[in-house]
Amino acid sequence: MTVRDFSQDHAWLSINTATVRRQQGLEVPLDRIVDQCAERGIRAISPWRDQVAAVGIGRIARQLKAHGMQLSGYCRGGFYPATDAAGWQRALDDNRRAIDEAKTLDAPCLVLVVGSLPGAVEGQAAYTSLARARSEVHDGIAASLAYARSVGMPLAIEPLHPMQAAERSCINTLEQALDVCDALDPDQIGGLGVAVDTYHVWWDPKLQAQIGRAGQRRLLACHVSDWLTPTRDLLNDRGMVGDGVIEFKRIRAWMEAAGFAGFSEVEIFSQTWWQRAGGEVLDTCIARHRQVV
Amino acid sequence: MTVRDFSQDHAWLSINTATVRRQQGLEVPLDRIVDQCAERGIRAISPWRDQVAAVGIGRIARQLKAHGMQLSGYCRGGFYPATDAAGWQRALDDNRRAIDEAKTLDAPCLVLVVGSLPGAVEGQAAYTSLARARSEVHDGIAASLAYARSVGMPLAIEPLHPMQAAERSCINTLEQALDVCDALDPDQIGGLGVAVDTYHVWWDPKLQAQIGRAGQRRLLACHVSDWLTPTRDLLNDRGMVGDGVIEFKRIRAWMEAAGFAGFSEVEIFSQTWWQRAGGEVLDTCIARHRQVV
Lengths: 293, 293
Prior knowledge:
293 residues, TIM Barrel, alpha/beta
C-alpha cells in the first residue's frame, strides 16, 4: 500500500471556503472565491451555506459547472439540541434544507457539526446535561438520515475537538462518531460516515485504530489545518498546514491505508490568515499541500 | 450506595494552592495561604513545589502539622520527554526529588503532569511525534514508579485536556491514563493511579465507564474547576465551580460509586480569580463546595 504522492501537483487539494472568506479583513463573496480557486487549478472546494445563500445557489451551481469544479463536502448541517419542540422542529427542517442544497450542488456529503448544550454558543447554556445533548443528537441524525437516504446524500459526522464540547459539538472523538454510525447504520448500508479533521482529532491516542475501524465506507472527508503552540483562541487561531505540530503525512497514511482516496480539504479559521490577501493564502495552501500534507 | 453529603460542611474540601497563589494580582507565599485555609477550617491543601521551595519545606511541614492539616496531593512530577540523554536524566532526577518532597510532606500521592513535545511550551517543539513523547512518558513513569514504590509514594497520572496535548501532557483521556497504569502495574499491586480533574475530562463520552474501570485502587485524587462558555484562554480561564457547565454532582456520584472517598480539591487557574482577595476566593470555594460539588 503506497500513499498518494501529493508533491508534484495539487490535484487532491480542496479549499474549504471559510479559509478565504475574509481577505485583508474584508468579507469576500463566494463567486469571487470560486474564481480565485479556478484560476489556480484547484479542483474542489467546500463552501458554507451562508456563503452560498448570499450569492444564490443556482448561480454557484452554474459557476462550478462552468469551471469543472466539484465539492469535497458541504458545510454544514447539525446543531440538533434544542430547548423545546418548536426549536427541535426548526433544527430538523433546517437540516432537510441543507441536504437539499448539498444535493443541488452535487456534494459528496453534508458535513454535520452536531451541536451541544443549547444556548452555550451565546454564553448561557439552557441545560448542562451532555448526556441529554448526546441523546438529542442521536435522534436528530437518525431523522436527517432517513431523509438524506431518500435523496441520496451521505451525512458525514465531524467530531469536534473536546474544547468545543459545550458550544458546538457533543461528539468529540472519532470513536464516539463511529459508535453513532454503528448504532444508526449497523449493517453499513451506507450514507452515513465521518469527516476527519486533523485539527480536531490529532491528539487522540486511538486515532489510528479508529481510522482503521472506520474504513473506506465511513471515511467521507478529510480536513487539514495545524495546531499552533501557543494557541491563543479556541475558535479562530488555527494554523496553516506546516506551521504547527500535526503530523499530516502520518495521518494521511492511516487514512489511505483504510481506503480513503479523496481530497485533502484545507479549512483554516484564523484571524491571522483572514488579514492576508486571498491569492497569497491560496498560493500558500497549494505550496504546503505539496510539501507537508 | 449513597453519595456523601457535602451540603452541611466542608470537611472534604481541599484547596489546590494555585487557586490563591496570586491574590489581588500579587504573589502570596504558601505559609500565608496555609494560614488562610486553616482559619476557615479547611482540612487539606495541595501545594506546588515552587511554592513549597520558596518558603522552605521544613517550615511548611511543621506548619501543616501545627494546624492538623493534610495534603490531598502534591503538585507535581512529570514532564518526562526530552531531546537528549542529559535532559532525560534531569527529568528522572527531578521526579525523584519531587517524590522525596511529597514523602516529607506526607502527601497521599504525587500528581504527574507527564509532559509532551519537548520545547512546545516555549513555542517551538523539538519534534512532533506524539508517539515518541508517549513512549518516553511510559518509560519515565516506569522509572519513577520503581523509586516511588521503594519509598511508598503513590503516583497519580493526571490526564490533561486534549487542548494541552502539544505542550503539557500527551496523556489526554482517563482511558489512556488507565492503559498506562495497567501496562506498568498489571497486577494492581498499587502505588500507581490517576488524578481525575473535572476540567480536563468532563467532555469525555467514556468518563463514567473509565471511572468505573479505575476503581478505588486507582482513583487517587479528584480536582474540580468549571468550564466557562466562552473560554477565553486555554490555560488560565478556568471557572469557579458552579459558574460553568460541568456536572460535578454527577461526576462525584460516579467517583464514589467506584469507591473514591477522598477530598474534592478546588484547582482554579484564572486571571479573574487571581485578581480577587484571597479570603473572598476561599469563602467562595467553601460556599460552592457545599452547593454544587
